[in-house]
Amino acid sequence: MVKIDEALDIIYNLVTKKSKQIVPIEDTVGAITAKSYKASFDLPRFDNSAMDGYAVKVADAGRTVNIKEVIYAGDSPQNELKKYKAIKIMTGAPIPKGCEAIVPIEDIDFLTKESIILPPTIKPNAMIRWKGEDIKSGEIFLEANTKVTGYTLALLASQGITHIEIYKKPKVVIFSTGEELKAHYEKIEPHQLYNSNAPMFYARALELDCDVSYISSSGDTLEELKLSAKEAMDANLILTSGGVSVGDKDFTIQAFEELGMEILFSKVDIKPGKPTTFGKMGSCFVVNLPGNPLASMVNFEMFVKPIIYKLSGTNSFYHSTITTKMRDNHKIRAGKYTVILGEWDGDSFMPIQNQKPGMVSPMDRADGMIVTSPEIDSLEKNQIVKMIPIKLNLQSDKKENFFIQKD
Ligand code: AMP
Ligand code: MG
After folding, report:
1. Helix (H, G, I), strand (E, B), or coil: what is residue 78?
2. Most buried residue among 53, 122, 235, 308 by CB atoms closer than 10 A?
3. Residue 401 lies in a domain
4. In 3D, which of 156, 96, 159 has the Cα closest to residue 132?
5. Which domain holds residue 147?
6. What is the pLDDT of residues 268-286, one digit of tens each?
7. Atom 5 of ligand 1: nearest residue by CA position
8. Is the same domain home to 222 and 333?
9. What residues line ligand 1, using a CB cutoff of 6 Å?
10. pTM metric for this prediction
11. What is the pLDDT of residues 58-100, one digit of tens each?
């Protein structure tokens, strides 16, 4: 049996990113960059006006000056600005040679259209946007192993980059085990149960930007399990639920071992979900989760999420935490690392009152989870705790200690 942080270290150390592809930038939002990108020119490309106004000399402050010329965005000005003169200029237009500042139209007194009075003081360089002040030529403006957002596309497009290299989405295959299970679209007998884990993992892996599929649930025999496992072997990650405990028909791990799975950890000191197993079969990782819905969900959030992040190629694969406080007192049975699901309102954390490993109803209510160390038997109202968010997607590039311990 391993501790939670040992299991996470195994994941952080052993799971590596996968293949790359080159894609038009419009199709890369949410993907992880596979290399860094350097600017090939300055941005702005030339000194230009930040306002609609007048290009002036500082020494002409307070003077009446003449205007003969207008520079528009897209123009290439040829004439130098001389003293006692101003040149009308629009936002984004290149400043003329000899220009020392831009005075916004709003600060001008007009005698006529061609004759204006400049304000009494003009700061040198006012309202000028300088070549390279935003991005310098040669500078890395997009790091490798980071998530592309809509704003990244602005950076890329501003450098004229049409395609970038990203990591392919992790390919995840999900299947469940259990003779009692029926798919949610099938007719059910009183002694049977709908498979709620498979659609749950399917949707959650989609939310985490995976390429997911699920194959029909397997029966409980070794042969059936091996057949299902073989069908899934081209994945980067196989997720199973059920059949990992000590029951007479719990053959999931054995089936994978017989197909060559090397076990990386088996059984974690975590409540709920102790039998969770992590292995590798060829280049495919495997997580065998318990069948109990809430236990499998907790272990998905704790272990599968970082596996998916590592497979995605991001540098931010660690659990991120939100520091909050307990809304009320809460009792815990000491002796194990315990995960508690709860609601969070932005201010405090409230454990969901009735949470048992076999339940379904608490899962959708959980905004996050906290983890207590074995010595903890109670949490007090207003006590500061670190919550791992579930509904908010936060990731960290630094390992944080999220365990609630006695100090
Ligand atoms: P197992 O881990 O196979 O012993 O299953 C533990 C409990 O979880 C049993 O009550 C199962 O019926 C239930 N269970 C297993 N798999 C699923 C599933 N895919 N969806 C919902 N409940 C499940
Ligand atoms: Mg079972």
Report:
1. coil
2. 308
3. no
4. 159
5. 21-43+137-167
6. 999 999 999 999 999 999 9
7. 291
8. no
9. 176, 178, 180-181, 193, 195-198, 241-245, 247, 290-293, 358
10. 0.94
11. 999 999 999 999 999 999 999 999 999 999 999 999 999 999 9
